[in-house]
Amino acid sequence: MNTYDPVKRAIDIALGGVILALSLPIQGLVACLIKKKLGAPVLFRQQRPGKHQEIFELVKFRTMLDVDEARGLVTDAQRITKFGAMLRSTSLDELPSLWNVVKGDMSLVGPRPLLVRYLDRYTPEQARRHEVRPGVTGLAQVSGRNSLSWAEKFDKDMEYVDKRSLTLDLKILFLTVAKVVRRDGIAAEGDVSMPEFMGTPRG
Fold first, then answer.
1. Is 136 helix (H, G, I), strand (E, B) or coil?
2. Domains in the chain: how many in total?
3. Is residue 188 situated within a structural domain?
4. 94 DSSP 8-state letter
5. Using CA atoms, how far apart are residues 118 and 46, in angstroms rounded to an integer?
6. Tens digit of pLDDT for each residue in 67-102?
7. Which residues, including other chains, have CB under 8 Å from residue 43's CB and lie 6 or more apart?
8. Residue 148 lies in a domain
9. Is the pLDDT reported for residue 191 higher than 50?
10. 10 Å Cβ neighbour count for 148?
11. Which three-class secondary structure state does DSSP give residue 137?
């Protein structure tokens, strides 16, 4: 256990709680707009692996239309709307995840929580990303976000796990704000977000 971890958790509760409270009016407005433009439900909920691979329910704002084969709405690229893309590019869709931070499922800073089905695709080194709580933002996000390859993202995740500190967290939070303002690195080339991780070739 890193000696910074108890301090990190205290910061998550205090700062995460303050940001959550201050963002409630914005979240209320976003929720109303989602209900009008995308319909119900307003929130996106999905099981994700957290610290020590324990499963929790991630909560975000919904950004996509429902799957509807009759209307040709199947892939992510077909289902996302301009409004949903705006929510993602400004990271407004992440605001409900602050509740996950306050609860202790997540941290403000850490490796992003990925899909449960990826768990058996990691190498032992990549699986070390679960030694810490997943974050709303992380070193990979401020280093290129979805413009990075999976290998590059995992390298950044491991770098964070090994070097996590108050100084590094403050730097990542500052860079996150700058990235959001510039709407930088939102999607990988040719994808709405990131292509599915199929595992790292071994041998």
1. strand
2. 1
3. no
4. G
5. 14
6. 777 777 667 778 888 899 899 888 899 999 999 999
7. 59, 60, 61, 62, 96
8. yes
9. no
10. 18
11. strand
b or e along 77-105 (b: 16 or more beta carbons within 10 Å of the residue's beta carbon)? eebbeeebbebbeebbbbbbbbebbbeeb
- Whole-angstrom distance, CA of residue 62 vs CA of residue 198: 25
Question: How far apart, in Å, are the Cα atoms of 54 and each of 45, 50, 130, 133?
Answer: 16, 5, 9, 10
Cα separation, 195 vs 160, whole angstroms = 23
Q: What is the DSSP string of 38-91?
A: T-S--EEEEEEE-GGG-EEEEEEE--BPPPBGGGTB-SHHHHB-HHHHHHHHTT
Q: Which domain holds residue 139?
A: 5-182
Residue 128's closest CA among 164, 81, 79, 74?
A: 164
The per-residue pLDDT for 187 is: 45
The alpha carbons of the chain give a radius of gyration, in whole angstroms, of 17
Kindly tell me the sign of the dihedral angle through the C-alpha atoms of 171, 156, 114, 70: positive
Q: Would 200 be classed as within a structural domain?
A: no
Angle at 192 between CA 109 and CA 84, to 5 degrees: 80
Decide if 12 contacts 97 (C-beta within 8 A): no
Residue 198 is assigned to a structural domain of this protein: no
Name residue, tokens 């700062």.
Answer: 15
Q: Tell me the mean pLDDT in the region 22-30.
A: 97
